[in-house]
Amino acid sequence: MLATLRQKRVILGISGGIAAYKSADLVRRLKDAGADVHVVMTAAAQQFITPLTLQALSGNPVHTELLNPEAEAGMGHIQLARWADVVLVAPASADVIARLAQGVANDLLTTLWLATKAKRAVAPAMNQQMWAAQITQDNIATLIKQGVEVFYPASGSQACGDVGMGRMLEAVELAQCCADLFATQALTGKRVVITAGPTQENLDPVRYMTNHSSGKMGFSIAQACIEAGAQVTLISGPVHLPTPDRVQRVNVVSALQMLEASQQAVNDGCDIFIASAAVADYRPIRIAEQKIKKQGDNIHIELVKNPDIVATIAQMTPKPFVLGFAAETERVEEYARHKLQTKNLNMIACNDVSRTDIGFQSDDNAMTVFWTNGCQKLDKAPKQQIARQLVALCAQQFLNEYNDEATS
Q1: Which helix (H) or strand (E) holds 146?
Q2: CA gap 266, 272 in Å, rounded
Q3: Which helix (H) or strand (E) holds 91?
Q4: Which residues share a beta bridge with 235?
C-alpha cells in the first residue's frame, strides 16, 4: 500500500501543537516505506517535541532556522525546497495554515513552502472551534485553490477537553495519504540491477584491454527506471558519467569484478536484471607484475574466456527477469534470438554497432527488442528516449510473465 513512497523525498513540516507527538510515529512509518525524510520544525513545534528525537528517527539533521549559516552551507532552504518530492505539514496549526494561505514567508517552513515545486499537503490539527472558524475554512479553501492537498482532521476528544472535529489523523493514515499523492508507476517498488559501460582487463601495471562503450545507454536506462518508480543499483565499468539521481552506483573495473558485484546485488534482492554493459569476452591468463617491454615485432598474450555475466545471472535461483543486450555487426536478428534462447533470457535488446550514427560513443541509438513471442523495433532516437521506450517494454513483459506465473 505504501510502495509509491519508496525513494521519495519527503519534507515533514511540524508546527506547534500537541499533535506534534504523532509526527515521530509518522517519520518512522515514512522511513519504513522507503522514503527519505527531512524534518523542518517551527519554533513553536520545538516546545512540544525535540529536534533530537526526530533526527534520530529520520536519520537526517533537523532543520529549524532560516538564517543559519551552518545549515545554509549544507542544505540551505532553496536546496531543500528543490530536493523534495512532497512537503507535508503535519500537524498544521491554525496559525501556520493562515501564513501558508497568505504567502507569508517569515520562517524556514513557510519560506521553503513558497520556494518548492514539489507536491504540497497539510494535515490540520487544532481545537474544534478554531477548525470551525470561518477564517480557518477560508484559508483551507485558499490552499485548495493553490493545489494543496488537505488531509482533513478527524473528530474525537481533544487535549483541551473539547470533543469535535480537529484531531490530526493518525500516523498510519497520514503515511497512506502521502503515498496516495504519487501514482503507481510501471516499476513502482521493483528492484532493478543494471550493468553499464565497458570492462578493463589488465595486461600489466600500465596497460589494459577494453572496448568503446561509453556507458551512456546503461546510465540512460538507470534514469528511466528511476522515473518508472524502481529502486536501482547501477554496476558500472570505468566511465566518466555522473550518477543519475537516486541511483545506487557500484564501480568496478574487470569482468570478474562486475560478475561478483552483479551476483551480490541479485542476492540482495532483484526483480529485474538489465545487462547493458559491454563486457570483455576474454582476459589475460597472467597479468605481468612489471611493465611489458618491447620484444621484437610480435608479442603473444594468452587469453582465457571470461564468465558470461548475463547467462550466469539467468541461471540463478530464484531467477530475476533478465534483459540482455546484443551488440552485433552482422546477422543481428539471428544472433539475438540465438542468445535469447541459449542464455535463458526473458528479453534481449539488439543493436547494429556497425552503424556509425548510433551505438558506442553516440548520443543516439536504435534497437530491436526480442522476447519469446514477440519483438518491437525502436527507431533511432536520443538514448534517453530509447531508454524510456525500452524500460516500458521491459516493465510490460515483466508484468505479463509475473501474471502468467501467478495464475499457472
Answers
A1: none
A2: 9
A3: strand 86-92
A4: 195, 250
Q: In the structure, what pLDDT confidence band is assigned to residue 165 with cuts at 50, 70 and 90?
A: confident
For position 74, what pLDDT does the model report? 53
| Contact between 101 and 89 (Cβ < 8 Å) | no
Residue pair 332/307 in contact (Cβ under 8 Å)? The answer is: no
How many degrees, rounded to 5, is the angle at CA 305 between CA 303 and CA 308? 155
Which CA distances in Å does 58 have to 18, 108, 339? 20, 18, 46
- Find the distance separating the first CA and the last CA of the chain, reported in whole Å: 25
Cα separation, 368 vs 111, whole angstroms: 49
* Cβ neighbours of residue 161 closer than 8 Å, sequence gap 6 or more: none
pLDDT score of 253 more than 90: yes
Q: Please name each of the domains of the chain with its CATH number.
A: 3-179 (3.40.50.1950), 191-281+301-407 (3.40.50.10300)
**DSSP string for 342-373:** HTT-SEEEEEETT-SSSSTT-SEEEEEEEETT
pLDDT one-digit tens code per residue, 353-387: 777 676 566 778 889 999 988 899 999 888 999 99
Point out the least confidently predicted range of 18-27, 75-84, 112-121, 267-276: 75-84
Res. 72 pLDDT band, cuts 50 70 90: low
| Per-residue pLDDT at 402 | 74
- Catalytic residue annotation: 160
Task: Report DSSP letters for 240-259, one per residue.
Answer: --PPPTT-EEEE--SHHHHH
Give the CA dihedral 208, 211, 215, 216, nearest 10 degrees.
Answer: 140
CA-nearest of 73, 79, 364, 83 to 245 is: 83
Grid cell 597472467 — which residue?
286
d(CA 37, CA 262): 29
**Phi and psi angles of residue 101, each rounded to the nearest 5 degrees, phi first:** -65, -35
Strand, coil or helix: what is 166? strand
Q: Is residue 76 over pLDDT 90?
A: no
